[in-house]
Design brief:
The complex is a heterodimer of chains A (about 500) and B (about 475).
Chain A (H helix, E strand, L loop, with lengths): L4 H18 L5 H25 L10 E9 L4 E7 L3 H18 L7 H20 L3 H10 L1 H11 L4 H30 L4 H7 L10 H15 L8 H8 L2 H11 L1 H14 L1 H27 L4 H22 L2 H32 L10 H4 L1 H15 L5 H15 L6 H27 L15 H19 L2 H15 L5
Antiparallel strand pairs in A: 1-2
Chain B lengths: L6 H19 L5 H20 L16 H20 L11 H20 L3 H19 L5 H32 L4 H10 L9 H18 L7 H8 L2 H25 L5 H26 L5 H26 L5 H31 L10 H4 L1 H15 L5 H15 L3 H27 L12 H19 L2 H11 L5
The chains are: A mainly alpha (about 500), B mainly alpha (about 475).
């Protein structure tokens, strides 16, 4: 390895946070430009890595590895690397991290602290996706709590203190169980190396502790983050009260950590247990899909609506993962990426509506199509992507999940489950169209005549995100080819 | 007999005497502080030189001078150093007793150092008293109502605890006929009945010793003194109590229980269960009782009870698991170092803050994040470390100690401890919230001298380093704990 790309990508935002925190400039423009630079370089490097990622047959599964001995007595290593699964997620994180800075351009309250925390958040999320050592993985997983706590409780709105504390307590509770799981993995295998444990399989796990117990301990931690029904109640509160850019990060990449963890740890280390318990998890996924969509239908707060829709969408991810087929797993991974961009865009748009119009109750909105045509157009595209219209990324992802789970032979009765899950799509169409109709159609209201449409800066990030959604929708192979490289070995572990 | 092995203790005793003598002759009382610091440094250098040598025990095996003892000596010296450093402003509250204050800290530290090296029940008891009696005086040194009340409470309960320990020792002596720890182990291994029913006196003795030492480490149900004494004592002494006294308690528990009662298994298994139960109730009661507190010293008092619970997870592990690895005790020692730095950091921040706003009420910390962001950041970092969130040392310490417990079949205890960390997040974060998010009342600026700030910086830096590169200290604690015969 000539150059430590992954370390550079991971630590540049943190370095930026440090620089921003230490420079005592009064001019917030400088702060924002610094933040932009320190997120743009990681994005550029991530794009480069994505392009340079070796896709040829026979290429190493894990690439761009860095491995140094870190804590000798625990045999913990500083071990980074990406495979086909984490590479696109790394790209997504740096992409949204960069856009989050743009989206935050209009934050004027304590900007130095704000951007420092935002950058620190990016570092920790990247860390989760690129760590291959369990201890490092867990540390990055935990660090993320602190910036989130500050970001929600200082720059949030509404019951921000309550939401922030709820978020922290839920996350820590999940990670308490995850820690127990990781410790059990550590002492039964004597290793903290994720690749190594997955590679050698369960054969090395001794009898001291039933593998199923470890599986559930780990799963619980990820399920809180995903969030899986019935552990989801922190999410609507956190989303509703968080500042816009933080909602984007939260929906876009933070909750993906849960899905990523499930594939990386639960499925690839415990394929037998995953298969054994897949039924019950898929049923929970279905409940999440239907329940999430039904509750979404009743929301009147525009951000809360999008938050609840995430619960439903994450249900598809859970379904895709525990259908345990190669196609369905790829679909789940693609859904994570797609949902990251689509819901990120939706939150950005909702934030813009709230910022420009200062109304967040959809019953009071209406007829905005005339006054803010650009915002409306983008909102509609994002909404259609969310409900899975063909040519958008949402379609490609959901199609793969349904196709994969319908044909997967790993779990019994999957075809029936899949048909039930498709009902969710109908409900999604219902609430998305209802939201667009409520907010943008109907007779124009006079009090909104002076509302500003998106300005140039906002147009930039909107169009970039729309472009990504369309690109993935029209040519999903750009991502699925890479995902498949990471997922094929994992899917290979599942017995027929 | 080689007196040079006692150099650290002799230096410290000399420094304490010099401080008292100097007080008679000079007007600038703050000089005694520098003298005290110098004594600690010199003593520390002597102790550090002894590290690694396989030194023999002295005074007919009364005092051990092994790595374990040296490790704790250095820890206590470091704690005393930071406490004295942070007293630079606080000493003005003691008016005429400045040099006595420093001398008493030095003497108490001397007692703790001897506690760590005691290898015989007699020397152990004497050093325990030597460490405790100065503390009773120090607690009362503010001479106001609360301080006096808490000192009296501490003295009475402390005296009872000492009596209980002594009674326990007497029973153990009766059962084994030995006072030397190693000889007790030998006698238990060969000639003495070690079943609870066959030898109730021995078990009674062990239980009484657990109770007496439990007072030192503030484990539930021997914690009643903690909130009142922590609140009433001078804050610097609270800091000293919460880390020094606690670490000393753990030092003798480790020494006594691993050396004397480590084998056979039916004994270690029994005291292992006792510590596991004490650990669970300490964590729950400490954390839950901390939630409604409004005074930060009381809150940290309850939090230190909970922290004792986490530490006892380590003790329980080794009692129950018949340790076969050297990793065993080292988890506990690492936790102690990390806890000492973290809690000292938190208390030093409290000392500095209370010097500025003249209050220990959490609500009065409002707006601190705006007025003195660096100070608030330091306190936040220490609190985060107490919760156990990386990259602070508290996380690494918990990971280390829990991984050993999980390895030895105590996963249920680990899960309970981890859930307790979640509960604790609630009240630690409340302080963070008040500091950063609540609006400031009136801003009053008083200057702080540089010494306490330096002490705080050392603590925070240490917490960060231990959290990021713990390998160094881990190797250190491993060789310190390798003296145990397992």
């Amino acid at each position: 390895m000539d150059f430590n790309y992954l370390s550079t990508i991971m630590f540049l935002p943190a370095a930026g946070a440090l620089v921003i925190a230490l420079t005592k400039n009064k001019d917030e423009k400088i702060t924002k430009r610094l933040a932009l630079v320190f997120t743009a370089i990681p994005l550029a490097l991530a794009i480069y890595l994505f392009v340079a990622f070796d896709r040829s047959a026979g290429a190493a599964v894990v690439q761009f590895q860095e491995k140094y001995l870190w804590i000798a007595p625990l045999s913990a290593h500083y071990h980074l690397g990406v495979d086909g699964l984490s590479m696109p997620l790394l790209l997504l994180t740096t992409f949204l991290g960069f856009l989050a800075v743009l989206i935050s351009w209009k934050v004027h309250e304590r900007p130095r602290e704000y951007f420092a925390w935002l950058l620190l958040l990016e570092t920790s999320i990247i860390g989760v996706f690129v760590s291959l050592d369990l201890l490092l993985f867990f540390i990055m997983w935990e660090i993320e709590v602190i910036p989130m706590y500050f970001l929600i409780s200082v720059w949030g709105s509404g019951r921000k203190g309550y939401s922030a504390t709820k978020y922290v307590i839920y996350t820590l509770l999940g990670s308490a169980f995850m820690l127990a799981g990781i410790l059990s993995l550590y002492f039964t295998t004597g290793s903290l190396d994720m690749i190594n444990i997955a590679h050698r399989g369960l054969g090395i796990i001794q009898t001291a502790m039933p593998a199923a117990a470890i599986f559930w301990l780990l799963f619980f931690g990820f399920a809180v983050k995903l969030p899986m029904f019935p552990l989801h109640t922190w999410l609507p509160d956190a989303h509703t009260d968080a500042p816009t850019a933080v909602s984007v990060m939260l929906a876009g990449v933070l909750i993906k950590m849960g899905g990523y963890g499930m594939i990386r740890l639960c499925v690839s280390m415990f394929p037998d247990q995953a298969q054994q318990y897949a039924q019950i998890l898929i049923i929970l996924a279905l409940v999440g899909i239907i329940y999430g969509a039904a509750v979404t239908l009743m929301q009147t707060d525009i951000k809360r609506l999008i938050a609840y829709s995430s619960i439903s969408h994450m249900g598809y991810v859970l379904l895709g993962i525990f259908a345990l087929g190669e196609v369905s797993l790829t679909g789940a991974a693609l859904q994570m990426f797609s949902h990251g961009v689509v819901t990120g865009l939706l939150f950005a748009m909702a934030g813009l509506v709230i910022h420009n119009i200062e109304v967040r109750d959809m019953r009071k909105l209406g007829g905005l199509a005339r006054q803010v045509p650009v915002m409306m157009a983008v909102f509609v595209i994002a909404g259609l992507a969310s409900l899975g219209l063909p040519t958008t990324s949402g379609f490609a992802a959901e199609f793969l999940i349904f196709l994969g789970s319908y044909t997967s032979g790993a779990v019994a009765h999957l075809n029936i489950y899949t048909l039930i899950a498709i009902i969710g799509v109908v409900l999604t169409a219902g609430y998305i169209l209802w939201m667009i109709q409520q907010a943008f159609h109907g007779p124009p209201k006079e009090e909104y005549n002076r509302v500003k449409d998106a300005d140039n800066l906002e147009k930039v990030y909107m169009f970039v995100m729309v472009a990504v959604i369309m690109l993935v929708g029209i040519y999903p192979a750009v991502l699925t080819d890479v995902f498949q490289l990471g997922i094929a070995p994992i899917a290979g572990l599942i017995g027929g | 007999m080689n007196l040079s092995l006692l150099k650290p203790e002799i230096t410290l005793a000399a420094a304490a005497v010099l401080v008292i003598l100097l007080d008679l002759f000079i007007k600038q009382k703050y000089m005694t502080r520098y003298l005290g610091l110098a004594g600690l440094v010199v003593s520390g250098v002597f102790a550090a030189i002894m590290w690694g040598d396989n030194n023999p025990a002295i005074f007919n095996n009364m005092l051990a001078t092994d790595n374990f003892a040296v490790f704790f000596k250095l820890l206590f010296l470091g704690i005393a150093f930071l406490v004295i450093l942070s007293s630079a402003d606080y000493e003005n509250k003691f008016r005429n007793f400045k040099s006595e204050y420093y001398a008493l800290i030095l003497i108490s530290t001397l007692g703790m150092m001897l506690m760590a090296s005691a290898a015989d029940m007699i020397s152990l008891f004497i050093s325990l008293e030597l460490a405790s009696i100065p503390l009773y005086v120090l607690v009362s040194l503010l001479k106001d109502k609360k301080s006096t009340e808490s000192a009296l409470k501490y003295l009475l309960l402390g005296a009872i605890a000492s009596a209980v320990v002594l009674y326990g020792m007497a029973l153990v002596f009766g059962a084994t006929g030995e006072t030397q720890l190693a000889a007790i182990a030998q006698s238990l291994g060969t000639s003495v009945d070690t079943t609870p029913l066959g030898n109730p006196g021995l078990y009674m003795g062990i239980v009484l010793m657990v109770a007496g030492f439990g007072f030192k480490i503030a484990a539930v149900p021997f914690q009643m003194w903690v909130p009142d004494v922590y609140e009433g004592a001078p804050t610097t002494i609270t800091a000293y109590l919460s880390v020094g006294s606690k670490a000393a308690g753990f030092a003798i528990i480790l020494r006594v229980f691993f050396t004397a009662f480590g084998v056979p298994f039916d004994i270690s298994n029994n005291w292992g269960i006792i510590f596991a139960v004490l650990s669970v109730i300490s964590m729950f009661i400490g954390n839950i009782a901390a939630i409604p507190q409004t005074n930060i010293k009381r809150m940290l008092g309850y939090s230190s009870i909970a922290q004792a619970g986490y530490l006892m997870v380590g003790l329980a592990t080794f009692g129950l698991a018949m340790p076969s690895t050297v990793l065993g005790e080292s988890g506990l020692l690492f936790f102690l170092v990390s806890y000492a730095l973290t809690n000292l950091g938190a208390f030093i921040a409290v000392v500095i803050i209370s010097g500025r706003i003249n209050s220990d009420t959490i609500a009065d910390y409002a707006g601190l994040g705006k007025r003195s962001p660096v100070l608030a950041l330091a306190l936040t970092f220490c609190l985060i470390s107490l919760i156990g969130i990386p990259p602070a040392a508290g996380f690494m310490a918990k990971f280390y100690i829990f991984s050993l417990a999980a390895e030895h079949g105590l996963l249920w205890l680990v899960i309970l401890a981890a859930i307790n960390s979640v509960i604790s997040a609630y009240y630690y974060l409340r302080v963070v919230k008040v500091m950063w998010f609540n609006e400031a009342p009136a801003a009053e600026k008083t200057t702080t001298t540089v010494a306490p700030v330096v002490a705080l910086a050392i603590c925070c830096l240490g917490v960060l380093l231990l959290g990021v590169i713990p390998g160094l200290i881990m190797r250190f604690v491993e060789s310190a704990s390798s003296i145990f015969p397992f």
